[in-house]
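Checklist before submission:
- one chain only
- standard amino acids only
- sequence pasted in full

Submission:
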Amino acid sequence: MLKRRIESRLAVVGVVGMGYVGQPLAIAAHQKGFRVIGFDTDLAKVAALNAGSSGIRTIPDEKILAMRRSGRFHASGDAADLAQPDVILICVPTPLTRFREPDLTFVENTSRALAATLRPGQLICLESTTYPGTTEEVVKPILEESGLLVGRDVFLAFSPEREDPGNPNYCTTNIPKVVGADDEVSRELANCYYGAIVDRVIAVPSAATAEAVKLTENIFRCVNIALVNELKHIYEKMGINIWDVIEAASTKPFGYMPFYPGPGLGGHCIPIDPFYLTWKAREYEVPTRFIELAGEINAAEPQQVVNSLASALSSRKRVSVNGARVLLVGVAYKKNVDDLRESPALVIMQDLETRGASVEYFDPWIPEIPVTRAHAGLAGRGSIAWDLQRFAAAFDAALIVTDHDAIDYAGLVKSVDLVVDTRNATRNVREGRDRIVLA
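Returned file contents:
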C-alpha cells in the first residue's frame, strides 16, 4: 500500500528539522511531486518558511516561495501533525556533550513525539549522523512503545545525510543516497522512497552499516586534514610552504587526493562524528587511537593559529597580543556559507580576547553571531563594515580564518601591514607579499 502511494506520488512526506539538511530534502521531495510538511520546534523558523523564507542564504527564498504557492508544502510546529505524513525523515542535530560523548537528546525527543502519533503504515527514516546501532537500539524501542512493531506495522531505515552547503556542483538529487534497514519490508520501502527523489540509491544490508558509512566518510576527512595540519607545522620549520607541496603532489593522477590545512575543523559533521565511533568502540573494548589522535591534532589548530599570530605580531611589529587590535576575516566554518556551527573562528576570537587582544570581525555571510552552546558570550557581536581606509589605522593585524570568495584580499593586504592567512586566501595577491604570514 505505502509502496504504491510512493510510486504514485500520493504519499505525504514529513521532514523533521528544517535546517541545512532538512530543507534540501523537503525541496527535493516537493520537486518530485510529493506533498511535504516541514516540522521544526523553532516557531519563528516555521513562520518564516510559511512566509516563503528559507532563513539560509545558500537556499534561495524563491524555492520556498514556489513550494508554498504550489499548495503542496507547509511548515508546522505542532507535533500532533506528525500523524499526517506517510514518510517521515528525521534530520535533527546530534551534538556532543562537554565530555565528548554522544548527545542523542534531539533524536530521542523526536522519536518520542513520533511514537505518540504513530500509525500503521508509516516509514521513518533517520538521517542524523550517529554511531552504528542507534536506529536499532535507540529509535526502534522508542517507536515500539506505541504498541506498533517495526517491520510489521511501521517501518524504519537509516540514510545518512550527505549535504554540502554552498557546493555548486552537488545537490540532494545528484548525490548517491546510502540506505540501510534491518528488515526486508523497511529496506524495500526506504529504497523505493529515496529512489523516487535521488538519481542513485546505494542499498546496504543494515541500518548499522549505513550509520558506519557516514562515520567512515567523515573520519576519512578528519584524519587526512589532521595529517596535512601536522605536515604544515613540520614543513614550516624547514622553510617549506605546505600549499606549494600540496599543489605539486596533486598533479599525480593516482594514489593521492589533496586535503588542505586550516585553522581547525568546523561544521556539524567532521569535528563531531569521529567521537561517536570512539565512544561506541569502548563498548567493544576496541582502541581508536588513530581517530582520537587526529581529533587532538585538529582540535589544537585554533591555539596554533593564535600562537602564530602572536609570534608574527612580536617579531614583525614588536606588539604583544595583550593590547593588540585584531581583525578576524571570516567567521563561518567554511567559505561561502552562513553556517557558524563549530567554527574555529569562535575559539580563536575567545582565546585572543582572553589573552587581552581587542577583536572585531568581518564576514559578509554572518552579519551577527548567534547564540552557540560553547561560546554564548560572543552572541550578538556584529560584523563591521568593510572599510579599508579605517582598517589601516584601526588594526595591528588581520587574521584570515575563512576564505570567502567575495573579499578583496589584495585590498586587505594593501591596507593592513600584517595579514596572517590560515587558508592561503592571499595566494593570488602579488603586491605586498612581505606583509603576509601563512599560518
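Reviewer check: The chain has a mean pLDDT of 96.
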